[in-house]
Predict the 3D structure of the following.
Amino acid sequence: MLGLHALQLIGALAQRDFGAAVGALAQRDWLHTHARHQTIVADAHRRAAIAATLAPVEDATGPSKPRIPLLWSAKVNQSTIINGQVQATIVPLGDGRMVEDTRAKRKATFSAAKFPWAPASFVGSEKEWMNFTTFFTSDYMGFLLNGQPLDASIYGAAKFSATFGWLIGAHAGGMKPYNGSSFQSWRFDLGADHFELLADAHGVPVYSVTNVSAPGLGNYTTIVSFSGWRADASQLPDVWVGYNETAFKEPEACPPPSDPTPVDTPIFIFHPKNNFDIAGQDVGDGTGDVFFVCVDVLTNKPSGVDHHYQWLTSWTVHHNPHLGQYQNCNGYPPKCLGANDFLVGHEAAQGLGAPFGGMCETNGQTGEWWSLPVGGECKGGATPEGGTCTWKATRQKTIDSKCLLDQLGFKEACKHGGRAPFEEATKIFYGAFAHDEPGQGGCPPLNVSVMVEQAQ
């Protein structure tokens, strides 16, 4: 199995050469949107490549089609549009790099960016950065986020497909303007799906658009501009060094603690009204949850609105202290990226820890995030002490998130703090649970005991 150190090296590729400031979207939202999008586009490319072999041969008197080498790499600036909305990302895919090897049936993309809300003490260090790699092989897709390998198979059997496999069946679309110059257009249509490439006079790709209609999901568009095109892997030379699919499918855990006695950890979670099933959900301590919410506030996406999480609950989680990979989970019912489905997962909030997102470290400046895997939940009379499960949660207090966000000055405290740790906002956050009266800085508890019992 690939060691954790080797995985960290894969994720830390020349970040200062092509990093940018991170755009804003909650980590868990963006990763799941990206996984779904990558699966849809890869499948469209594969179907188009097959269909293109049956397309009529172009008139030999027309312009010559670009000849895409079996191995190529380039700097890429990629944007995604879903149902007409440009998608923001936690790690911008602009200023990224891509390598594709058709003979080996694999490709990878890498981007790195500074996280604007990282603690001031992180500035100038590796912890200030978000590094993100997408790997495609002949039968697998996985992500590497700050050294943490995430299995993405929950979104289907995404696998390698040549980016320009459809070009063999494309027709010339005339000269089209782009970035102040004119380039030869090549187009291929397959039903409701459309593929276009603009190439220069030497046949080098400059700009591409993939537009795919996914039944039940809508319209997905990927726009990529290419620069620094090379017929070798030199734009991303070492991305496959040490790659081992097993590290994604069977992620390593932290070293077992010297004392295996289960511990009690206080955690918090924003959630929809009336939903108290926290199995397969991501949670945080006060500092970590505040980091999550304050970033949304600072980007005009308060969690109570953006994620439709109207309530906020504190729990005590009784769990095995042996921690594992943090699963990145989203939605109800949950979908989780990451193959650890037994041990309680852990990382620094926003993944801004080292090594491996702070999985096995204490992360005081960012706060802590945990994942509560469905496969590790203790049900009925089972407890972590028995060894057949790893965690069991007891609810402490539930409040309406509007009390925290709108009545106690929390949003203003986020803006005043500007970056983690949001000390003033964290103090307000804890006060909302310590007291019941707004006049004392608290929020009244909601009477939800019956709903909690039904969920458990």
Remarks:
- The chain has a mean pLDDT of 88.
- The radius of gyration is 24 Å.
- The CA atoms of residues 171 and 187 lie 5 Å apart.
- The longest strand covers residues 218-230.
